[in-house]
Amino acid sequence: MAGSQLNADVWISEYITPYDIYVHGITSILAHKKTPYQEMYIVESGAYGKALVLDGKWQSCTGDEFLYHEALVHPAMVNHPNPENVLILGGGEGATTREVFRWNAVKKAMMVDIDGDVVEACRQHLPEMHQGSFDDPRLELIIGDAFNVLDTTEPTWDIIISDLSDPIEEGPSFQLFTKEYFSQLKQVLRENGIVVIQAGPIAPANLHIHGRLVNTLKAVFSNVHAYFAPTCTYGSAWGFAIASESRFDTIPNPEKIDLLLEQKTSNDFRSFDGISLLGMLQTPGYVRQCIEKETEVYSITQPPKFFGKGVNN
């Protein structure tokens, strides 16, 4: 290509739609394993540092993961008066637990991930992401199935963060984006508890999944709000949804948020602050229109399935 210089010999091609591919140039492969649940790579990319790749789909990388993880965790934490107990479902890199432990009020976090091989590889190869959060005495790490844990846990959670891999049919998580799953989350929340989920891309080409996920949450919770963050290496801005029986402020005062963060957190965020929160909560019109038009509710018998898997070249 005229005017371009390509420096990678290995490429991961991630299929975004039947017509779109995001190709990541890889300089080295740090770990690879076919686990009982999925195929895992930890790689070094040329532009964005080290990355976790599951079933060919980019999960997060050291170069821009803060855009995703700060957006995933902190809007819910801000909106809870005293988030002491946090349940994290998924989150194998340990970056979600890292963000949770920025909050002084947190007394306990339980992280549940089905794939111990992925967690151990991330512990070894991605210290930039977990930053020692796996060793925090407040963390209880459980390698197991989220449904089984939800069946046995008590309603003791102030915040539940559903940080799961995309629901491709071959992967382990496609049933965890359904009405039945969200109903189980609601049953183990404390009063004023909040659920937040990663809710897929908000690019117009595949926006319908985000709209249906938000609609599915609305079938379970009284108050649901969609928001988003720029996530460079996903090839799309990424959607999230926050849900609760309590109302939350979607037009926060940035100065008040900055003061709250100063008082209640370690306040060493890379992106998140009062202005960032106000911006991410202002859901674009085309996304709101999609949510209003969607009527489908995902269920165990009709779960969502993201398009495609990636391949190495």
Assigned CATH superfamily of the largest domain:
Vaccinia Virus protein VP39
CATH level-3 fold name of the largest domain: Rossmann fold
Secondary structure class reads alpha/beta
Overall form: globular
* Poorly predicted segments: 168-172
Kindly state the percentage of residues in helix.
Answer: 25-40%
Q: Strand order within the widest sheet? A: 8-7-6-9-10-12-11
Overall CATH class of the largest domain: Alpha Beta
First-to-last CA distance:
18 Å
Biggest beta sheet summary: 7 strands, mixed
The averaged pLDDT comes out at: 90
Strand tally is 13
| Integer count of domains | 2
Strand residue percentage: 25-35%
CATH architecture tag of the largest domain: 3-Layer(aba) Sandwich
| SSE pattern | EEEEEHEHEHHEHEHEHEEHHHE
Q: Helix tally?
A: 10
Gyration radius, rounded: 19 Å
Walk me through the structure:
- The protein contains ten helices and 13 strands.
- It is an alpha/beta fold.
- It has two domains: 10-63, Roll (Spermidine Synthase, Chain: A, domain 2); 65-304, Rossmann fold.
- The protein is globular, with a radius of gyration of 19 Å.
What is the structure about, briefly put?
This protein is of the alpha/beta class. The chain is 28% helix and 30% strand.
